[in-house]
Write a structure and sequence with these properties.
Strand 7 and strand 8 form a beta hairpin. The protein has 213 residues and is an all-beta fold. It is built from no helices and 15 strands. A 7-stranded antiparallel beta sheet has the order 8-7-11-3-4-10-9, with no helix packed on it. It has one domain. 0% of the residues lie in helices and 42% in strands. The protein is globular and about 45 Å long.
C-alpha cells in the first residue's frame, strides 16, 4: 500500500525560491477515481481524486506535506475523461485541484489532489456502496486528442476486481478497484466493512482508503 512521507520530493532537485509557492501539476496519462456525492435533477455531484504520486513539481525542490500543503492549486495538464466499465462517460475541463488531507496512520500525514464539481452526464454512473460510492475512473488526456492507457494485466490467482474501467470499450479494462480485509480492522468512513480499497493499473496500485494502525 502506498504511503506518503511527511516530506516529499516531486520533480528535479532544483530548489524553489524562499517563500515561493510550488507549481504543482497532474500530467497527461494520470489515472484517478470518481465518487458520486449526490444527484440533484440532471446534475451529478462528483468527488474526483488522484493519488498523490502522480503530482509533479516542474520547478523541483522540496514540497512540504503536512497541513501547509493542503492548499494547492494543482493544475491539470490536459482534459479529464470520465469512464466506467462501459467506456467513456464524459469529457470535460476542470478548474485546479486542491491538495487535501485524507489519511493519518503509520504512513504519516497524507494528502492528495481532490476536487468536487457538478456535471450533467450523458449517462448515469452507478455508485458502489461497498466501495464508499466510488463509481468510475478519470484519466488526463491531451487536449483535443483521444485518451490512452495501457491495458490492465492480472497475475494468475489474483482476486476479482470490485470495479473495472474500460476506457476504449474493447473488453480489456485499463483500471480497476481491488479490495481486501484490513489486517488491523481499522478503516475510516462508511461502510464499516474494514476493507482496503486500491486503485489498480498497469503500472501498479495506489491506496484510496485510509486503513491501518
Amino acid at each position: 500500500m502506498t504511503r506518503l512521507l511527511l516530506l516529499a520530493f516531486f520533480g528535479a532537485a532544483v530548489p524553489a525560491q524562499a517563500g515561493e509557492a510550488p507549481i504543482l501539476e497532474i500530467p497527461v496519462g494520470s489515472l484517478g477515481v470518481a465518487t458520486v456525492v449526490g444527484v440533484k435533477g440532471d446534475q451529478t455531484r462528483l468527488r474526483l481524486v488522484f493519488p498523490a504520486a502522480v503530482v509533479e513539481n516542474p520547478n523541483g525542490g522540496q514540497v512540504p506535506a503536512g497541513e501547509t500543503f493542503t492548499k494547492g492549486p494543482v493544475t491539470i495538464k490536459g482534459e479529464l475523461v470520465l469512464f466506467d466499465r462501459s467506456g467513456v462517460v464524459h469529457r470535460f475541463t476542470a478548474k485546479p485541484f486542491t491538495m487535501r488531507f485524507w489519511c493519518e496512520n503509520d504512513g504519516g500525514y497524507q494528502v492528495r489532489p481532490e476536487l468536487e464539481l457538478s456535471l450533467t452526464l450523458p449517462r448515469a454512473l452507478v455508485p458502489q456502496p461497498a466501495l464508499q460510492n466510488l463509481a468510475g475512473f478519470i484519466v488526463v488526456a491531451p487536449k483535443g486528442k483521444p485518451p490512452t492507457l495501457p491495458p490492465l494485466t492480472r497475475p494468475a490467482g489474483a482476486p476479482k476486481l470490485a470495479l473495472v474501467g474500460d476506457l476504449d470499450g474493447d473488453g480489456r479494462p485499463e483500471a480497476g478497484l481491488e479490495t481486501a480485509p484490513d489486517p488491523a480492522n481499522n478503516c475510516d468512513g462508511k461502510p464499516r466493512n474494514n476493507l482496503t480499497i486500491e486503485l489498480v493499473m498497469a503500472t501498479g496500485a495506489e491506496s484510496l482508503r485510509c486503513c491501518g494502525p
